[in-house]
Write a structure and sequence with these properties.
The chain has 17 helices and 13 strands. With 462 residues, the chain is α+β, with helices and mostly antiparallel strands.
Amino acid sequence: MAQQKLYAGAKLREMRLRLSLTQKEFAAKLGVSLPYLNQMENNNRPVSTTVVLALAQEFGLDVTELSAGDSERLVSDMREVMADPVFADDTPPMADLRLTASNAPALARALLTLHRAYRQTHERLASLDEALGREDARIQASPWEEVRDFFHYCDNYIDAVDRAAENFCGRLDARSAAIAALDQAGISVVFGDIDGLRKFDPAGKVLRLSNRASPQTQLFQLLLQVALLHQNDLLEATLDFAKFHSDAARSIAKIGLANYFAGAAMMPYRQFLEAAVECRHDLELLSTRFGASIEQVAHRLSTLQRPGAKGVPFFFVRVDQAGTITKRHSATRLQFARFGGACPLWNVHRAFETPGRFLRQLAETPDGVRYISLARDVSKPGGSFGSPVRRYAIALGCEVRHADALVYADTLDVSQDSAYEPIGISCRICERRDCHQRSVPPLERRLSIDTDQRGVLPYEVS
């Protein structure tokens, strides 16, 4: 099989600007001519092996950054945008989308922002009677979407926060380290029967935690408070770098970064990565060893993307009972739909039917990439009679080429074509013609409608 050429002009240019080097200086350090570097940065030539080696030897850069990250995400996100009926007559081919993502990523992101504003305009018009007269009726990006995209395009890995969390505990366990840090600040920790999970009184210097919560949740909330108090400067500096468009988005992101710190402190990067490799990513063993919940462990596995020390690239998603995606991240080529739910053929939806059990699935997406997916329900009891139970399902998976690293792949015959179930991302960008669960027609396909007969679908896809 011919080796795929690596076109990574935008990434190469980003690395050069990060190092504050001119093209001439960068070319000299890489041992190539100035015109050759210019051609690579403009994707007129692939990045050569010589340049890849020079990047690693001269600058100590993780060269996997050249081929991973934004491009696949941008292509997937643009495909979903182009599935909007407004583009029905002017849909660009995939080659153009890939070219835009690799050569003009800023333009691609601008398109996503524009489409998001367009969607919000329609949503406001649909409820015009409610929006009229409101001061906040102007079009603006949803703070939740803005924060979601921030973590999405950071590969769900925040290096400075992750390293700070890793260094936080020292020789102490996470719980002892958190109690010691709060005690040093003169803060008392009280466990009681309270509404919610955590209440902090800055004036009285009292942190109250719910005794209804699980030990894992209590520890997480302890560490989250530590992050807000002891890592505030780091969190604010990270937020300054992100340049959010609203105070609401910045506030949401700060909680997100504090959550990130808490998870990374419970499961320090190197220690957790070594344990994950050793037990072949057994979520239950990792949960017991690090005192974390199954969901916390699965989420942490999806963040192991530190340059030079990357783990298995996983996707991680959480859905509610309606199929709405409430958390999503992918370090793989599989990218989730930005709007709406996930493919109904995916095993994450069946997890609600088998509580307490892990479901395994071998799946293949329309682009021919094969995955192993693990799904399980995660219920969150309210802690008392009559309190509502929050029910979700999570899925964790990776490309099947990493199957040997997963205990969950044992006894699965990954070599059999018939073992793989066909799944998609979103019906509008899934090109499968004969899917019995299709809800809307696929993009870029003509439909044939015969009034004299009816199959599984009311139309046939050409």
